[in-house]
Amino acid sequence: MRGWWQDLTDLVLPAECGGCGRPRAALCAGCREALCGAVPCRVRPDPGPPGLPVVHAAAPYEDAVRAVLLAHKERGALALAGPLGAGLAGAVRAGLRAGTRAGSRGAAEGDGAVLLVPVPSARGAVRARGHDPVRRIALAAAGELRGAGTRARVLCVLRQRRAVADQSGLNSRQRQANLAGALEVTAGGRRLLAGGGRVVIVDDLMTTGASLAEAARAMRDVHTDSIGRAAPVTAREITGENAISAAVVAASPESFEINRN
Questions:
Q1: Strands, DSSP E only, in 4-138?
Q2: CB contact at 8 A, 84 and 69
Q3: What Cα–Cα distance (Å) separates residue 58 from each residue in 13, 33, 138, 150, 227?
Q4: Would you say 249 and 84 are in contact if contact means Cβ atoms under 8 Å apart?
Q5: Which pLDDT tens digit goes with each residue over 85-105?
Q6: Which of 44, 66, 92, 116 lies 20 to 30 angstroms, CA to CA, from 106?
């Protein structure tokens, strides 16, 4: 109900830019350029958690980009999902192109389906916010990709299997410990993934990479076969010939240092 009401008020009331606060613009041209104007890059935290897939980001998490993400996530500025989705779509495309150059079959845009798998939010956080920001951004990104000719859809096949502590204030190692084994693929997720396609785990923000690494672990370790025994499956079995990759709207500025080497 809150999400429906916010959508309506975004249409009929004067808005202010989610990045800089300029009146009567959900996102001004300058802040849109900061979010979507840069060339998406590969990013990697230092230290990187074990199992972290290759990650691409649209922009550094600072200034206007940080303000836009927080406005959408915490203040319910739902109109920002569109430009945030455009930024995420750019990061997904960058990952697909990198996979093509690396020789991954089926990674090229328009070649096979792209399956966007959002990192799940805790149910309590979704209730408190009145919406699921990562899922909303992922849906907008899928629309952007389809508009450009890439077959893309969102598969919400991950869920939290146990409660986790608030990540704020935790360092990289503590976040890894906090999230270890916290995610799993839903009961029907394996069937949905069996259709094939390039799996791209998506999130709004990467800081330490712990959430993306745990999501990738859960995707690789789909378990419970038809007779109830543990049956890990590899990324190859989930995604055909393609490895799992990841894309985010923003990442910590330090994680962009990989591109200067």
A1: 41-43, 55-60, 114-118
A2: yes
A3: 29, 11, 14, 18, 43
A4: yes
A5: 999 999 999 999 987 666 544
A6: 44
